[in-house]
Amino acid sequence: MKKNSFIFNTNRCVGCNACVAGCSIENGTDFRVNWREVNTGNKIKHPGLPVFHFSLACNHCEDAPCMKNCPALAYTRDEKTGAIIHHAEACIGCTYCTWACPYDAPKFNPATKIVEKCNFCVDRISDGKRPACVEACPVGALDFGLLDLKEEDRVTPGFVDMGIKPSIQLIPLREENKAPKVENTDQVEIDEKKIEEWLPKPKDKVALDKEWTLVLFTIAVAGLVAWQAAHLMGAIDMQLIPFGIVSVLAIALTSLHIGKKMRMWRFILNLKGSWLSREIFSFSGFLGLTGFQLVTGNIWFGILALIFGICSLISVDMVYKFLTRKDGLPVHSGMVSLTGILFFVWLIEVPIVIELIILIKGSLYIGRKISLRLIRLKHFPALSLLRTLCLLIPYFLLGTQWELSLAISLAIILAGELIDRAEFYYESDVITPEKELRNI
C-alpha cells in the first residue's frame, strides 16, 4: 500500500544542514530545538574513516510508538496524509515519547516545557507541495513521494528498524563510499580507543541528574505498597497522617518531572496503550482506596488497594521497557517490584523469605557489576561495596544479640535500594540515530 514517505540518499548528502534551516524557517521553531537533525558517521573528520551524513526527522511510522505510548493522547494521525501530528495544547511535557521514539523525533522545548516535532509539513503536502526540508536540499539527497515501502528500503548504517514501519526509503551507501580513498601512504593507524575519546559526548535522554525525582518516587511507590501489604497481614500498623504525608511527597516528586503541572489529569487518558498511564492510574487508585480504608476501617478497601498497588509496581517496571541496558541483561536488581517485595518481607519478618529475596537481589546486582567490568564500563566498586553491605548487614545481624531495630534495618536497606535505583538510571540508555552511528 503506497503512502507518503521521505526518501534519503546517503550517497548525496554533504551535511550542509540546509534541510534543517528549511524546516526551521517554515515552522518558526526555536533555534535550540531542531525538528530535523543531520548526524554524521565521522564527527571528528578523521581522514581514515568513512564520511557520510544522515538527515532524519519524524518518520511518521505506521505503528508510531510516540502516539501509542503517550499517556496524554497528545498525538493523532492525519488520515489523508499519514502524518503523525503532535498537539501542543494536550501535551503535559512528561517526555515519555522521547524515550519511545528510536529516531529522536520528539524534542522537548525547555522554553515552552512541552514536546514538539516534525509535522510532515502537512499543510504543504495536502496542497500537493513537497515538505520544506526537501525543497531546501541543494543536492537532491532528500526527497518525498508516494511509495510502497519494503523492509529492504530501511537497511542502511545508523538506522534502526524496530518493526514500527517508518515512512522513509533509505538509499544505502555505495561500496566505494564506505571507506574513503586516502592517498597519504604515511597515514597514522586508527586507534579505536582514541577515536572514542575524541568523539563528542552524545546527548543523554536518560541521566541521573535529570531523573533523581523518579529515583525517589519509584522507591516511595515500593515502600507504600509494601507497607499496605504488611498492614493487611497484621504485621505493622498504618495511620492516616504518616501515610498521607508520604503519599503527598510521592505525588510532588512525580509532578516535578513534567512540564505542564496543571495538565497532570491527562496522565490517565491512555490506559489502553501507555504503561505510564497505567502506572499513574493504578498508583492513584492505590492511594485513594488506602485512604478510604484508613478512614472507614473497611478491610475490603485495603484489599482492593493492594491489588492496585501491585499493578502500580508492575506498571512502573514496564514504563522502562524502552530503555537499553549497558550491561545487556534483561533483569535488574533495582526493579521496583523486587524492591517492594524486599521491603514487605522485612516488615513481616519471615527470615527464610528474607534470605531468598536477598539472594535474588544480591545475585542480580553482583552479576550486573561483573558484566560491566567485563565490557570495561565504569562500575563504581566502592559504591557497589556499600550497596552490598546495605543488603547484607541487617540480614547477618538478624536473630543475633546485636539485632537492629526494624526502623534501623529498613533505613539501611533503603539506602542500598536508593543506590541500586540510582545506578539503574545511570546504566540505562535510549536508542538514538546519533548513538547508532557511533557503533558502526
UniProtKB/TrEMBL annotation:
Keyword Chloroplast: no
Domain 4Fe-4S ferredoxin-type: 4-34, 48-80, 82-111
Keywords recorded for this protein, A-Z: 4Fe-4S, Iron, Iron-sulfur, Membrane, Metal-binding, Transmembrane, Transmembrane helix
Transmembrane segments: 212-234, 240-259, 303-323, 335-360, 380-398
Pfam families assigned: Fer4_11
GO molecular function: 4 iron, 4 sulfur cluster binding; metal ion binding
PROSITE patterns assigned to the protein according to its UniProt record, in alphabetical order: 4FE4S_FER_1, 4FE4S_FER_2
InterPro entries: 4Fe4S_Fe-S-bd, 4Fe4S_Fe_S_CS, ET_IronSulfur_Cluster-Binding
Protein name (database record): Fe-S-cluster-containing dehydrogenase component
